[in-house]
Amino acid sequence: MIEKPVSRRTVLTASLTAVVGAGLAACGSRPSEQAATKTDKPLVIGVSLPLTGDFSQPGSEAKRGYQVWADQINKAGGLLGRPVRLTIVDDASSQDTVVSDYTKLITQDKVDLVLGTFSSLLNYAASAVAEKNNMVFVEPAGGAPKMFTRGFKNLFFAQPATAPHQADVFVDWIKSLPAGQRPATAAYPSQDDPFAKPVIDSMREQLEALGVRTVYTSTYPADTTNFQSIASQMAGKKPDLIAQGAVFEDGVGLVRSLKQLRYSPKIMFQTSAPSNAGQYSSGVGEGSTEGVFYTVSWHQDAHTPHNAEFVADYQAAYQNADPAEDAADAYAAAQVLQAAVTAVGAVDQTKIRDWLHANTVQTILGPLSWADNGEPQGKFLLAQWQSGTAQVVAPPDAATSQTIVNPKPDWK
Amino acid sequence: MAQLVQALALGVLIGGIYALMASGLTLIFGVLRVINIAQGAFLILVATFTWWLWRVIGIDPIVAAVITTPLMFGVGWLLYRFVISRIRGQAPSMSVLLTFGLALVIEGVLNVVAGNKFRSATPAYFEESFRVGRVLLPKAQVYGFLAAIVVLGVLYLILTRTWTGRAIRATSQNPSAAALVGVGATGTAALAFALGSASAGVGGSILSVLYPFFPASHYDWISRLLGIVVLGGMGSLPGALTGALILGLAETLTATYASLQWATLVFYLVIMAVLLVRPQGLFGARLREDAA
User: Fold this and answer.
1) Are the C-beta atoms of B200 and B46 separated by less than 8 Å?
2) How many Cβ atoms are within 10 Å of B186's Cβ, its own excluded?
3) Chain B contact present for A318, CB below 8 A
């Protein structure tokens, strides 16, 4: 879940390319419009993903998620009776490339459907191409607030909540504590990232309203590698709660620095770093994961429809590796598209779009539904590391563990 | 006061390690006029290999430098002989293209072979600190810093006290004159490239303990290293050390007294200010293009 802000130039390029693309699209009709009844003709879904460059890690996971979904649906007889074929191209984590990729997929390759790419940075530009071409754009990872201020009709963010609402479930938990047990003071370091910072900012506002005193805030750039200075500043203020907007390395880096400085807060929250299961626990040391909170869109053991099959098929396909949240989000995005196409019974972009606006889709992330601007209207899961594994602790119906570790034990 | 001392101490530790990583880049440029964009990828390649040595065989990651350094020396020598030497005499921009391509190849191979995920070596001491009065010095940083100082010292001695080193420096100052007095140009250049790569052997092993990394991390590192080298003066070893210390201190001091968000800006402001006054960098020699 690495996100970058969007430059004005790229937005301009995106819209220009999109306009040109739309003009070209009008010249030809989609294969499915002529031959929708042909059952042997594959239904082609176009995707551009960051398989190299900055976002290559989540991008590759997303590819696996899409692939697992496609394999499953083909085994079950395809979508609308037609085999599904994924056309996945690499955009090298570049906004310019992602725009030309989707333009080419839609206007030249004339794919039947598209699915979204990874990160707000790329989806911001890609969704503009889809919107101009009137293609439904279900995307697995692009929850920055800017995504939803453009009044797009074809955009659907297939996660339970956008960035500013990701920590709501954590604030709910703090609220549920008796006043005496709530943290009195809090520190809020965050990476300057459109996916991490809004989470922490919104949490800080909500906790300040509850009377939690803010003793430290700071924002650091994405390429920060040394966290001792931040850690020693915070250690000096002795906050009860440290809530960090952590993408990944920065989350590991801060915990390691806090350990070096021997400061352990009573409650530790990080946005997405702890969700990278094995990589996080090996980075900070397994003993030190105990009690760390994070919020997450998906959990491996959650009792959501098809989740167990997804995990099993993923493990079978990829040498027993555990799926990452990014793979699950991509799978869920495909599920959303699948549900709509099946319900509508045709590859009709307008009908699919209208159906999604009117209905709730059951996915491995739980039920998803959207506001008119494509913003999802659910809540994330609150997870906590307990005895070396990540457990869902709230909301109660999704919880995999009934206990909550509080206060957090010292780093080990 | 303790806060200031803490920030200064951390800044120096970080700076020493940056200096080691930048030393190879500046050495290679000094002698070959090759801007080795792949230096960052070398670091990540070595870090990944070190991680594997630590995880699978159980060798301490910093000690693993004893293995990775000669290995990278060999890799550097071969790369020069078979790849880099083909652009000898061309504009430095050609070397940027070639070594950038090399960096992409290394990133791609790491993606396929090692997998696209974050790693970091976590030996027992990685989260412990030495306490000096009220100042805490993280052990991993201290060990890394000491290793960096040893390597920089050895590199300095090689360059100033041995015939090979003098040959390398002579070639960097005036290749034609060096050739006239019997310095073999190709051999010396290969040696300089190999030494520069070998420094990434130590640097990468230290990196594996201090910072989580994944195949595409090399972009972050090369941009930081280029900044250091430009500030210090391209081709100058003392310059790289000074530039690295300035970056380390800029990071910790701005993080302590302002916000880390300003750290990068402060560093580049220093670069701009220095370049306005000394376009060749702090310790850089003016290039005489007519003599080259």
Assistant:
1) yes
2) 11
3) no
Other Cβ atoms within 10 Å of B121 Cβ, number? 28
Q: Give the range of the structural domain holding residue B128, as residue numbers without chain letter.
A: 2-277
* Residue B282: inside a domain: no
Q: Within 10 Å of residue A103's Cβ, how many Cβ atoms?
A: 24
Question: The CATH number of the domain where B13 resides is what?
Answer: 1.10.3470
Structural domains in chain A, sorted by start: 8-161+303-368 (3.40.50.2300), 165-299+380-398 (3.40.50.2300)
Q: Pick from A229, A226, A290: which is nearest to B5 by CA?
A: A229
How many angstroms separate the Cα of A207 from the Cα of each of A213, A254, A315, B105?
Answer: 8, 22, 39, 48
pLDDT per residue of chain A (412 residues) written in tens, 0 to 9: 444 444 444 444 444 444 444 444 444 445 444 444 555 789 999 999 999 888 888 899 999 999 999 999 999 999 999 999 999 999 999 999 999 999 999 999 999 999 999 988 899 999 999 999 999 999 999 888 889 999 999 999 999 998 889 999 999 999 999 988 999 999 999 998 878 899 999 999 999 999 999 999 999 988 888 898 899 889 999 999 999 999 888 999 999 999 988 899 999 999 989 988 778 888 888 889 999 999 998 988 887 889 999 999 999 999 988 898 899 999 999 999 999 999 999 999 999 999 999 999 999 998 899 999 999 988 899 999 999 999 999 888 778 899 999 999 999 8
What does pTM read for this prediction? 0.76
Longest dimension (CA), chain B: 58
Question: Which residues on neighbouring strands pair with residue A367, listed in sequence order?
Answer: A362
Q: Please list, in sequence order, all residues whose beta carbon lies within 8 angstroms of the beta carbon of residue A270, skipping any fewer than 6 positions away.
A: A243, A244, A246, A251, A254, A255, A292, A293, A294
A60 close contact with B: CB closer than 8 A: yes
For chain B, say whether A202 makes contact (Cβ under 8 Å). no
- Do the domain assignments include residue B257? yes
Residue of B100, B118, B117 whose CA lies nearest to B39: B100
Please indicate, yes or no, if residue B97 is contained in any of the structural domains.
yes
Residues of chain B contacting A192 with CB distance shorter than 8 Å:
261
How many domains would you assign to chain B? Answer: 1
Contact: B129, A221; criterion CB under 8 Å: no
Contact between A226 and B107 using a beta-carbon 8 Å cutoff: no
Residue B35 lies in a domain: yes
